[in-house]
Design goal:
By secondary structure, the chain is an alpha/beta fold. It folds into two domains: 157 residues, no CATH class; 150 residues, Glycosidases (TIM Barrel). It has a five-stranded parallel β-sheet with strand order 1-10-9-8-7. Helix 5 packs parallel to helix 6 and helix 11 packs across helix 12.
């Protein structure tokens, strides 16, 4: 397993080993988390992901008081299983501002926000002393929320302050902001203020068109080659990557072909350090509809995509995409 302490040495060569395989662990119907984690490990997972929401961990204003203390739980569970972590502080979660309530409405680079977030980072990482953290993202798909160059510049200064604090708390761990592949492919220049303040290019990659119809399963090679040209000096972390197996222009065979092409293309693309497959198990239809509502969407192709990107069906049976990773 590639550990954070030696990651810089691995990335120093243009001919890296296979990228770290991460799988977002989701449970099938009636399955406990330990069983799902064992399945992910059997499929070759070396890492998994943890996303944290500031307004969940500090729901009452200043002070760490979560209903579920996920950082402490992660620190207790994952090291013993040999699983590393990618950690996302989802201060922006696609469309939503997830700062605690007393800070919403302030500029991202307001000193009250940057100092409060530095304290939040200390609270969280102080509860995770044993976790092997491979990468830290500040914000999830922030291009869904940040609309103007001025907002992007302000968030970039927020990122820089967070990165400075993380350099003290977790020296050597790559830090960046999670952007969608579509944002980078569509207008990389707009996001340069974030990239120049990052030590890694962090991307979510779901090859769908504007109507959430799946593009062909063989697009990964060209997409990753273009991505590698965006910031040639930065290692690349595909912190989410997935492909639907049902719905609009997608099938289980297409999903399997995508996973196979993605992993081969990532291994052949210099500087790709990690691929995180989203996710292990499909969600039930009502869960997909509820998640689509969180994003403010009712598009049937979007709901079908959310409900079918798992490597296993909702009942826990393996799809062909799972067998690509772990042949029967």
């Amino acid at each position: 397993m590639i550990r954070a302490a030696c990651l810089a040495l691995v990335l120093a060569s243009p001919l890296t080993a296979q990228p770290v395989l991460s799988i977002d662990i989701t449970q099938s119907q009636g399955e406990d988390f330990g069983t799902a984690m064992a399945v992910a490990l059997e499929a070759g997972a070396e890492a998994t992901s943890l996303s944290l929401f500031w307004d969940d961990l500090e729901p009452n204003g200043p002070g760490y008081a979560p209903k579920n203390d996920w950082p402490t739980i992660a620190n207790a569970v994952y090291p013993g299983q040999g699983l590393s972590l990618t950690l996302t502080f989802s201060v922006i979660d696609t469309l939503a501002d997830r700062r605690r309530a007393d800070l919403k409405g302030l500029a991202w680079d307001d000193p009250r926000v940057t100092s409060a977030f530095a304290a939040h980072l200390r609270d969280v990482l102080g509860r995770m002393p044993d976790a092997d953290i491979l990468a830290i993202a500040i914000g999830n798909e922030v291009d869904g929320h940040l609309q103007t160059p001025q907002e992007i510049a302000g968030f970039a200064r927020f990122l820089a302050a967070a990165r400075a604090e993380l350099a003290r708390l977790r020296p050597g761990v790559p830090v960046g902001t999670k952007l969608t592949h579509g944002a980078i492919a569509g207008n990389a220049g707009l996001w340069q203020p974030l990239l120049v303040r990052s030590s890694a290019l962090m991307v979510t990659y779901y090859p769908l068109d504007a109507g959430f119809v799946a593009r062909g399963p063989g697009v990964a090679s060209a997409d990753l080659s273009a991505l590698a040209a965006v910031a040639p000096e930065l290692p690349i972390y595909l912190l989410e990557a997935g492909y639907p197996s049902a719905g609009c222009s997608a099938s289980e065979a297409d999903q399997a072909a995508f996973v196979q092409n993605l992993m081969a293309s990532a291994a052949a693309t210099p500087r790709i350090a990690l691929v995180s497959l989203t996710w292990l198990s499909d969600m039930a239809p009502h869960e997909a509809e509820a998640l689509a509502a969180y994003y403010g969407l009712s598009n049937r192709c979007f709901i079908a995509y959310l409900g079918s990107i798992g490597l296993r069906r909702a009942n826990g049976t393996a799809k062909p995409a799972f067998d690509v990773l772990s042949p029967p």
